[in-house]
Design brief:
340 residues; alpha/beta; Rossmann fold; Arc Repressor Mutant, subunit A; 2 domains; 7-stranded mixed beta sheet; two-stranded antiparallel sheet; 13 helices; 41% helix; disordered N terminus; transcription regulation; transcription
């Protein structure tokens, strides 16, 4: 089923390109917005720069680029795509003219997105002064050093401060594009676009750039990787070991043995890790313990408190002190029936 932009007024999105642009930092958010258009969202996409062609860092030459517009329409979105970082980043003439354009052209109702190192271009244009921001996890210290008036937040997927948005590296541009799609057309519409992009779990602003779950993905077992994908996509469902084994046509005993050998965790333990990390993000974002438990797949707040105390040796902020009763059932709440 197709959906339309609520007020059906087209929104103009301008992708600002500079020399040595990273293709994925352009293509990721561009594809997300393009899929939204295919679902009926009223958007117009433009690709602009100081020159009509330029080379990407990956070696592909981009042509047919439109000139920098002298005026932006109301409610426009400017996406500043990332270029390859080096000490003299954006110190070429083409980039300097883009910086000057950024200083003077956006309006009060213009949303400005800096993808990865695009934050450095925003900083040079003065848009990061006294604003919270982020960038690729390897470059947050450099961003702070270059722009001491900026309030750089490490380990964030994206950060919004007023009309300015900045993101972490590479695929984080997709997460921010989905956030903008949600702001304009609602969460259900954004979820449909995410599914079309095969993004099983949308990362939110306060999610860490490098998930702790990656440490359990260093193995080479195709079966276990597939099981992990399966669990991640069904994090909020009640799961039974027998049903998971049936889905992959293996015995439950074989599945559990292979999973433990590959990750060092049981499937139950892995699910706790996934759900705790998710709940932690919700709580840090202001949700109550009860809401965070529901969103992250715990059956009740007491189960979240018990798992949290076992892992972190403390209780989540705002949690009640009574967890002993829940602790007894910590090993049982993950699945909908006993699985041995």
């Amino acid at each position: 089923m197709k959906h339309a932009n609520p007020n059906n007024t087209p929104i103009d999105i301008y992708f600002l390109l500079t020399p040595d642009v990273h293709l994925l930092d352009l293509a990721g958010p561009c594809q997300a917005f393009h899929e939204a258009i295919s679902y009926g969202m009223a958007l117009n996409l433009h690709f602009i720069s100081d020159q009509n062609s330029l080379n990407s860092h990956q070696g592909l030459t981009l042509g047919g680029i439109q000139p920098l517009p002298s005026v932006l329409p109301h409610n426009a979105i400017v996406v500043v795509c990332a270029s390859k970082y080096h000490e003299e980043i954006y110190r070429n003439q083409a980039s300097e003219r883009c910086i000057e354009w950024l200083r003077h052209t956006p309006k009060a109702d213009t949303r400005i997105l800096g993808i990865c190192t695009g934050a450095f271009l925003l900083g040079l244009a003065g848009w990061l002064d006294n604003r919270q921001s982020t960038t690729h996890h390897k470059l947050t210290k450099a961003l702070s050093r270059y722009f001491p008036a900026a309030k750089v937040l490490p380990e964030r997927i994206f950060v919004q401060d007023g009309q300015v948005y900045t993101t972490a590296g590479v695929t984080a541009g997709i997460d921010l594009a989905l956030q903008l799609i949600e702001e304009i057309s609602g969460s259900r519409f954004a979820m449909e676009v995410a599914r079309e992009l095969v993004v099983y779990r949308r990362r939110m602003a306060n999610d860490p750039q490098i998930s702790k779950q990656l440490s359990y993905r260093s193995h080479i077992s195709p079966l276990v990787h597939s099981i992990q994908d399966y669990l991640q996509a069904r994090l909020h469902e009640k799961l039974a070991l027998a049903d998971i084994a049936d889905a992959f046509r293996v015995s439950s005993r074989h599945m559990q043995r292979e999973f433990k050998n590959a990750t060092g965790l049981t499937i139950r333990e892995f699910l706790v890790e996934l759900r705790l990390e998710e709940a932690k993000c919700y709580i840090e974002n202001g949700d109550t313990i009860e809401v965070a438990a529901l969103k992250s797949g715990f059956p009740q707040a007491s189960s979240l408190r018990a798992a949290w105390k076992k892992k972190y040796k403390t209780l989540p902020k705002g949690s009640a002190a009574k967890v002993d009763a829940a602790a007894e059932s910590t090993g049982r709440y993950l699945f909908n029936r006993s699985t041995g």
